[in-house]
Amino acid sequence: MNFFKQLGRFMMMGARAHAKWELDVSNTILGDKKRLIILGLLTIPVILGGIAFADQIGGALPELLGGKKAYSPAFYSTGIFIVSILIGMGAGLITGCIGAGGGFIIAPALMSAGIKGILAVGTDLFHIFAKAIMGSVIHRKLGNVSVPLAIVFLIGAIIGATAGGLLNRVLYEINPVLSDAFITTVYSLMLGFLGIYSLTDFLKARKAPGAADEGAHGGKIEGADLGSLPQKLQALKIPPMVKYDFDLVPGGRSISWVFLVLSGALVGLAAGIMGVGGGFLTFPIFVYVLGVSSMTTVGTDIFQIIFTAGYAAISQYAIYGFIFYTLAMGMLLGSLVGIQIGALVTKVVPGITIRGFYATAVLAGFVNRIFALPAKLGAMDVIPISPGLGAALETIGVWAFFIVIGAFSVWVIGTFLKNIRVLKGEEVRS
């Protein structure tokens, strides 16, 4: 029981750290006129070119990508672009308002909208890569990036991302439904752990009077003090040793390259299989497993997200046709706006309320994926279930998911509009 509690806490720390990165990126892009112009230039040809493409030859394309019946159309349509913006906005609202990774709902949302798993993963990775490149804040935090740490970590991340992408593609070649079932199972487990932990955390916070005012992020994130596990790992002197945190500890700390490569491989594997850049794992692994300070971790995490997401998106998905570019651009636009609105709402809504919404949103994603699984297993004759029952369960999961996420989005936007004057007053005073 204690293991699952620690696992949930571990994942929550990663979700919060990744959300902070998303907010920093959004602020950087929207606060820079040059970046906004670049974003506009990238978006205009996507929209205009996509419309012309769909209108002129869209009907002549194969009904399903690659001739595989498990796939949905990958070419552009105005409706798909609008849906992608809404999905990105929903994820952004969760990220900005709750201070934890709303990106976890992107792949389930895309799959629920008819996009198959491998395409959803590739598109999510490309969207994260594009966001990281456009909003890169590395130049502001170079002093906090440990280059040796990052390079050795990236060796493992490249290996892991290659393995994850290869696994997804092999499963697809065997049976596209098997690929979908695998990705759905992975997301079910992750969202299940995170959802149960979030709900437990919310219920405990309701009973603790002081916790209600703690805020959406749930307090500070530690990092400078070494726990027992980091101490044990750093005591194992398997050469070559990588040194870091010279500003924090005289002579710096050091850890064997073996543990860095293994950690990078785990992050890369998660990125290659699930999308989400793997960034949600980097922070807790660095701080609570390897014993890297929070300061160094933040800069190094930004560095690795760009390269891990970029490598995985391009080498494992783009060159095989598993990226929906117009969908990625719509998600990018929606998330940038959603994050800003969500972050403003945290100023006028109690943190305890926001925690409750996050637990509900994550559990809705869990229900969505777990209800989609029987139909896929039934299609492969793994379990005896009628197509009608499987379809009914999947429909229930889809409706439950979009109703919860939709209601949350309406509540956040409504709260924002209702409190515009209050928020403006705070900005003037600040």
Automatic annotation (TrEMBL):
It comes from the Bacteria. It is found in: Cell membrane; Membrane. One of its GO terms (cellular component) is plasma membrane. InterPro entries: TM_pro_TauE-like, TSUP/Inactive_protease-like. Its main location: membrane. Keywords: Cell membrane, Membrane, Transmembrane, Transmembrane helix. It is a multi-pass membrane protein. The keyword GTP-binding does not apply. The chain crosses the membrane at residues 36-54, 74-106, 145-167, 179-199, 254-273, 285-307, 319-345, 357-376, 396-417. Belongs to the 4-toluene sulfonate uptake permease (TSUP) (TC 2.A.102) family. This is Probable membrane transporter protein. It comes from Candidatus Desulfaltia bathyphila.
